[in-house]
UniProtKB/TrEMBL annotation:
Assigned GO CC terms: plasma membrane
Protein name: Diacylglycerol kinase catalytic region
GO MF entry, a single one: ATP binding
Keyword set includes DNA-binding: no
Record organism: Pirellula staleyi (strain ATCC 27377 / DSM 6068 / ICPB 4128) (Pirella staleyi)
PROSITE patterns tied to this protein: DAGK
Key word Magnesium present: no
InterPro entries noted in UniProt: ATP-NAD_kinase_N, Diacylglycerol_kinase_cat_dom, Lipid_Phosphate_FormReg, NAD/diacylglycerol_kinase_sf, YegS/DAGK_C
Keyword vocabulary terms for this entry: ATP-binding, Kinase, Nucleotide-binding, Transferase
The organism's place on the tree of life at top rank: Bacteria
A Pfam cross-reference name: YegS_C
Residues covered by the DAGKc domain: 15-143
Length: 321
């Protein structure tokens, strides 16, 4: 059930199906990650599930659609980072139960849902079958779960993935960040947004800034919380912006976010919207959940309840009503 107030509510139970689709990131890389995936598969088989590893995104889409239609599908395990979860979300129909096996660098959604690498814990979550519906953002036709970033962080992500070779670690960001610091010019970005109550086709207001973050869930890289009150269940996106464009300004903004004081920054703007458009002149990249998204312009809307995840009894007892 979707809570208009932003309160997390229980969304029922998953089907009694015994099929699990195990989607793995081809860049899983290290032997430890490969061993973890194998252990999860064995635990699922021992629990009586039929485990299928789709051969391609198209195969994943076809199997998930068929499994949802005949109720044979119990869950899709997204084994990887937040980008892997995004791929699974974009390839599967609404209502597909997803559980995360966190094997990426940040694993922000898994941290929010308290999904771990423990195979027994993952199987227990699937067995308990607790469904939770969360909003998703739609950015130029591509769904995302956590956030979109326009400008500097989009440039860092673009540089990182342009030369990516295998698994990404935290130190992989060092050179892209330094390169972006040297060359990024902080162009002015224009954000038109529509808040609830504004007629379709009209904008509620416009914000101009050089740092633009669109937040669905209160998680960002490095443990930062740009919008700590974001819920993912209110049918709204939190638009957070900073106006000045320089390295010193960026460091000042970063320190404010670290200490939870961004609201006290004089040029910080936060609004909530159901739809927004980000535009600029020139080529400015954006990122979605830590993966490259393309270049502006960017059109984002909210899709209430589009993401279905499985969570533990313990998580629900502490978070849901």
């Amino acid at each position: 059930m979707q809570a208009a107030s932003g309160v997390i509510e229980r969304s029922g139970k998953s089907s009694a199906g015994r099929q699990v689709l195990l989607w793995t990131n081809p860049n899983a890389g290290s032997h430890s990650r490969i061993d973890t995936i194998g252990a999860v598969e064995q635990h699922l088989i021992m629990a009586g599930y039929t485990v299928i590893r789709p051969s391609s995104p198209e195969d994943l889409a076809a199997r998930a659609t068929a499994g949802q239609a005949d109720q044979s599908l119990r869950a899709v395990v997204a084994a990887g980072g937040d980008g892997t979860v995004g791929l699974v979300l974009n390839q599967t129909p609404p209502g597909t139960p997803i559980v995360v096996l966190p094997l990426g660098t940040e694993n922000l959604l898994a941290k929010y849902l308290e999904h771990s690498r423990d195979p027994a814990a993952l199987v227990r979550i699937i067995e308990e079958g607790n469904l939770l519906s969360l909003d998703a953002g739609n950015a130029n036709g591509r769904l995302f779960t956590l956030m979109a970033g326009c400008g500097f962080d989009g440039e860092v992500v673009r540089r990182l993935h342009r030369k990516r070779r295998g698994h990404i670690g935290h130190w992989s960001y060092a050179k892209p960040i330094l390169d972006a610091i040297r060359t990024y010019e902080y162009p002015l970005l224009t954000v038109d947004y529509r808040a609830p109550g504004t007629p379709e086709g009209a904008w509620t207001g416009t914000v101009e800034a050089r740092w633009v973050f669109v937040v669905n869930l209160p998680r960002y890289a490095g443990g930062l919380a740009i919008s700590p009150t974001a819920t993912g269940t209110d049918g709204l996106l939190d638009i957070c912006t900073f106006k000045e464009g320089s390295l010193l300004s960026g460091l000042y903004y970063l320190s404010a976010v670290v200490f939870g004081q961004q609201g006290a920054v004089h040029d910080f703007v936060k609004v909530q919207a159901t739809h927004l458009r980000v535009q600029t002149t020139g080529k400015v990249p954006f990122q979605l959940d830590g993966d490259p998204g393309g270049e502006l312009p960017l059109d984002i809307s909210i899709e209430p309840g589009r993401l279905t995840v499985l969570v533990s009894d313990h998580w629900l007892d502490r978070h849901a009503q």
